[in-house]
Amino acid sequence: MPLEIGKASTGASPQAEKTDPAYLKIRDLIYGISGIYYSEEKLYLLSSRCSRRMAALEVATAPEYLEHLTTRGNRDAELRLLLNEITIGETYMFRHPAQLDALRNVILPQILQIKSLISLKRLRFWCAGCSTGEEPYTLAMFLLEEKDKMLAGWTWDILATDLNDNSLETARAGIYGEYALRNSSDLLRRKYFKDLGDKRLQTNDLLKSQLRFDRINLSDDSKMIFQKGMDIIFCCNVLIYFDLTSKRRVVQHFYSNLMPGGISSWAMPSRCSRWTIHFG
User: Fold this and answer.
1) CATH number for the domain formed by residue range(s) 97-278
2) Domain ranges of the chain
């Protein structure tokens, strides 16, 4: 789901980052690991993310923090913690009704027709960049509502992945407030959630059982090549923070992992318009 790189707490001044080569090296390190790229005019946003980790480590300067990311014994763990700071998602359930309409009226009927010809009545979905879980839980509710209608006799598997450990922990817990559920009907709330009080709801066992969460870095070729056999891949508001080279590599993996006739969908940066790309 979306990476809110554009929202950050106040850190060092933009001019300071342009004069400190350590931030350029941290930027390049992050890019090499995740595909997320900060242009020089956006380095101040990266520095504000770094400043939170620097405060936790009681590190005073960017060069010293760079050592924690590259040469210190804690470098792998620290890099993972920094990625958690960078990949902060913001989303809510039933965010894109038009996407669900297309899924119901166009995409699923096509895929069901193709798979019926080979008597394979199982569907595989992948929510790549699932953030705190709102998108895959929305998909799960949609599929459950169709299980006695369009999907009668079909089974499915939903893989939901993200780079951010904190987001995945929230997704697995499945506890949400009013913001995340504001587009969800009272019927769906009663059917798929447990009331925890204090305006918080938790996904029930039925809804949780539909999903499998995993940490996957979209720039990690060693993991991406093994996500085979997908019918539909969702990747919303993630690739807009990648440069062209990284986008091409991730899209190639999506292409390779789709079944014949499969479909991948993601939001593009131009006014957040949504494009659906057909493969096969």
Assistant:
1) 3.40.50.150
2) 14-86, 97-278
- Which residues sit opposite 54 in a β-bridge? none
Neighbours of 66 (CB within 10 A): 21
Q: What is the pTM of this model?
A: 0.83
Q: Which range scores top for mean pLDDT: 6-10, 15-19, 144-148?
A: 144-148
Q: What are the residues whose beta carbons fall under 8 Å from the beta carbon of 31, sequence distance 6 or more?
A: 37, 38, 243, 246
pLDDT digits (tens, 9 = 90+) for 207-221: 999 999 999 999 999
Phi, then psi, of 201 in degrees rounded to 5: -125, 145
E strand or H helix that includes residue 257: helix 244-257
CATH topology for the 14-86 domain:
Chemotaxis Receptor Methyltransferase Cher; domain 1 (1.10.155)
- Residue showing tokens 């508001």: 237
Cα–Cα distance measured from residue 245 to residue 1, given in angstroms and rounded to the nearest whole number: 20
H-state helical runs in 20-175: 21-34, 43-57, 62-70, 75-86, 97-102, 108-116, 134-146, 165-173
Mean pLDDT of the region 49-59: 94
Task: Give the span between the Cα atoms of 7 and 188, in whole angstroms.
Answer: 31
Query: 267 forms bridges with which residues in the sheet?
Result: 274
Is the predicted pLDDT of residue 67 greater than 60, yes or no?
yes
Mode of pairing for the β-strands spanning 211-215 and 175-176: unpaired
List CB contacts of 99: < 8 A, sequence separation 6 or more: 265, 274
Residue with tokens 């569907």: 123
Give the neighbor-by-neighbor strand order of the sheet with 193-197.
175-176, 200-203, 193-197
Residue type, 73: G
- Tell me which residue of 103, 186, 189 sits closest to 151, measured CA to CA: 103
Give the model's pLDDT for residue 215.
96
Residue type, 87: T
